[in-house]
Write a structure and sequence with these properties.
heterodimer, A: Dihydrodipicolinate Reductase, domain 2, eight-stranded mixed β-sheet, six-stranded parallel β-sheet, globular, B: alpha/beta, TIM Barrel, eight-stranded parallel β-sheet, 8 strands, NAD(P)-bd_dom_sf (chain A)
Chain lengths: 338, 295
Amino acid sequence: MVKVGLIGAGKMGISHLSILGAHPEVEVVGVSDTSKMVLDVFRKYSRFPVFADYEEMLMQANPDAVFISVPTKLHSTMAQKVMQKGKHVFSEKPLCLTDEEGQRLVALAEEKKLINQVGYHNKFIGTFQEVKRIVDGGYLGEVFHFVGEAYGPVVVRPQKENWRSKPGEGGGCLLDYASHVIDLINHILGPVTKVHGTIMKSFYSKSVEDSVFSLLEISPKVSGMLSVNWSDDTYRKMSTSITIIGSKGKIICDANELKLYFKTRDCPETYTKGWNVKYVTNFTDNVNFYLRGEEYSAQVDYFIKAVQGQSPNNVNTFHSAWHTDRVISLIKNSVNRN
Amino acid sequence: MERILFGDNQFFAVNHISDEKSRAQSIRFQDDKAILKTLDHAIGAGVTTFMCTTHDRIANICEHVRNHPGRYTDFKMFPCMPYAHKYANAVTELGILGALQEYVPGNFLGSLYKGGRAFLSKDYLSIMELLVDSEMKMFKGINTPVIFLQNIITDLLLGLGMIEVLKSFYLYVQKKYNAEGGFITMNLPKLLNELEGVGIENPVICTSINKIGFRMSGGIKAYEEILATRKVRVIAMQVLASGAIPPNDAIKYVCNLPNIESILFGASSKANIQETVSLIHKNDVSSSAEKIATV
């Protein structure tokens, strides 16, 4: 059994907790949160021990691994404290607010030889995994064009202030939504190295952006566009997609559907020349416990297996999430202020 | 429960395999008249139970049903609550407490806070009851013999080990609405064990059942074992696995399983509704003929 503690029982935290609670190899030894009411509900209705102070939880419950699901500005301090106590860490995304903070976490995890993972769950979605396989296999030929997009209904009217509306705490569509798309582009096509210009706009939010457009470059030959908007209420929930054009074909992919065009018969097995349409059902393995998408359970399971020494800990490491943080910095620095 | 139940995903752009199809459905059903017309096709095909989310637009459907009692004499609705995205979006904006304040009717939370005393267990259960009442308002005067908790909530509470809350929901809808409390889940084996553990016997559970094992957590074998050996009233959903299985194969598999009380499906066109209904009838007949032959 892996003993797990969780810091921050908000929306993502509760979701992780439910998946952890149902995991046959996990014992939840502590939940810490700053809301008295949340702690009270857990005290009355769950078996999980609760703590108002996370450092006290680390001391008393002595977990092997800790999930951190708190506003981004707190990731750096908390992850450092957790790792200094020799605990493995799963952190929500994005990793940190600055390159330097992230770099320190990467170095500390390496130094202490701790398992480290960040919640970029798209890498556990079957359709995106298939895109990675096709691109890595060279079946698209020389890639030269891509578009990464995400749309959804987070801020669809003027809102009350919360941490997502404060730039200093990690709010804004760039950190919340665009980070997922950037991470996926980095993963599938290689890290973004230059940003040629960005427009960030606010419609409803007062102090953060509601949309981001950026021109991204991976290498002089491979470039593309990022278009993200969290104020689109024609979507029920976040929808992330990527389009990739190469010399031998084209891919249009989201979490549910993969459309692939091959110019010739030189394509992977089970595909044909011309258009191919596949669905996530073709690529999805069952999970032991399903809450809101196989990917959420699969990423937790992958982390627990890594802690047990049964999987390699090379997906969504702090290091890869730090690359995403760096692209976020590049984007911020490239904002066109005219 | 009737053998065939009509679902509502197609009306609210819930499509598990294609955003494009979702958008097409959104456009097709943006007028309530289009929903009503499709419902009439289902009723015309003999399917008189509509299992639906407590989406705002269902209130208009309920209104129509109340205003035309003669046309909906045998009509039943199985409400499935809550419409989770409404709450999820509120939690993102307002936090958990803020979202509760937004949706718990009256000044219940405010008065508790002003009282300055600690919350008691019965206070939390009162919050749950008030939320159920607010979701049930739209169904006033409509026959709702089974009321479901949506899988996102059932499974969330299941993972958190809050089985007492599931039981409280079950008891409350029985007491207040004289209805059977049902549970939608993607985790039948785990849920059934836990419900039995708190004394809920022979529960109504709506869960994914399909030939390829899609969204059958714990594996298809565990589900088949439960159907063969346990006491549970199962509604099979996602029978076509979002279109991954050809209709005839999909329906044949489910009709041949023991203990499936009902099959839930959704479709947009009259032809698809009629085709699915007749496939179920056809396979039911041949499956019972096979059973008689083996006896």
